[in-house]
What does this fold into?
Amino acid sequence: MVDEHSPNPGHDETIVPVKPGLKGLQPVVSKVDSEKAISTPTLVISLGTLVVLVVVVFFVLPSWVEKQEPTQPLVEIVAPQLPDQSEEPSFTPEEMETLREEAEALLAQLLTQQGQLDGQSATEWGGEDFEQYEILAREGDDAYLSNAFYDAVPAYSQALEIGDILLRRSVDLITATLSAGEEALDAGNATLALEQFELVLSIEGENLIARAGLIRAQRLPEVLSLMKTGEDLRREADYETAANHYREALTIDSLWLPARTALEAVNTIISDRRFDALMSQGLGALMEEDYSDAYDFFGLALAIRPDSPDALNSLTQAEQGQKLDEIALTEARALAFESRELWDMAVRLYTEMLETDNTLEFAQQGLLRARDRADLNLKLVNLIENPNLLFSDLVLRDAEALLVEASTIQQPGIQLAAQISDLGRLVQIASTPIPVEIYSDEQTEVTVYRVGSLGKFLVKTLSLRPGNYTLVGSRVGYVDVRHELQVLPERAISPIRVECMESIR
It folds into this structure.
């Protein structure tokens, strides 16, 4: 050809791609004028004569010569003269220029096409069709360089047709070769897979599927080695280590289906064994009434097999047992608070239990009992810490009633007994009158609030319970006098003088 192309480097392996044949390709025939073409009869006669001479020369003449005298001359055979076919057809200059332009245009297309085929390494897979393609191209080049444009045009045209067929074939070849590469991978044939993917890349260097397949093929021996070791470990029932090998194989080639299938199978075995072990541990804990541990074991087993009725029923049983344990524990804590007379804390626990299950009778009764005692305790503490409240007659009566209520409680406990004693003493003190001497002038009317009118006197002694009192003196024509008196338990009271001495002006 006019344009020289360097051949692509060959592969180490022999690749035999599919070679679809080309149909309807015609040989190149030079265009001749009808006037200068050899007539059929003349051609037949000439060829017939030539055949006869060949027979005579190769079969008859040797035997005949042997019978003749050596001095006899040989028969001279003269080949028939064929008509001269080398004469060029005649074209006008305009026609030749048109043919030249057409040939140049076809040549430009052919060069582009040839670049595409070279880039796709057509020499490796084009077979006889590519050879015919190159022959036609060279014939076209020879004709073009000889200015035989009338021969270059058909040669280039036929070459372009073959080239188009080859380009279309490359697409199908890529698809078929990719499929063959994948099949080779699935079959574990790394060598064949490498060949197929390398062929695709020689045609289409940026084919991502082929690049990925080539990487997988390169790693396939390592994957197969891991798989073999995994299978050996699996037969030895070392499932955990086998699973590690399968996972490593998938790390190398995540698309290797046998590794994924084997890993799933081994994981199923591991899960089954783990499930059985957890169920056994859970049932053992259940037998020992260790409901908390049993609940944990059955929960883990159910996580492995969410649809297992055995695990679900066992978990429910453990949960119920755990709940009963928790109730019993809470009840014990509440009773412990009662025994320690920590009534507020007992109330809290009973309330929490009833919020969980309002049908618990012991909690209902315990809550009522704890509330009453907590209320009693609050009242007792308040009076004991604030004894001055007992100076009120009303409060004193309530305190006396509270003492009666507290005294009726059986097994009151150390704290309540002390509270009863303390309040009783305070009530006794608050109820014990203290003598108080009051002096006056027999002219002043003396009145003690909360007690009454004392009238006019010189001296009078009153018995007053602890508390606060107000004494008022009144006299006609004089300003009233007022005295505040605080009677404290177990304390002597100094005499008090109440008399009106300031006259009203």
Notes: The chain is about 65% helix and 5% strand. The first strand starts at residue 434 and ends at 439. Residues 1-85 have pLDDT under 50 and may be disordered. Strands lie at 434-439, 445-448, 452-455, 459-464, 467-474, 481-487, 496-497.
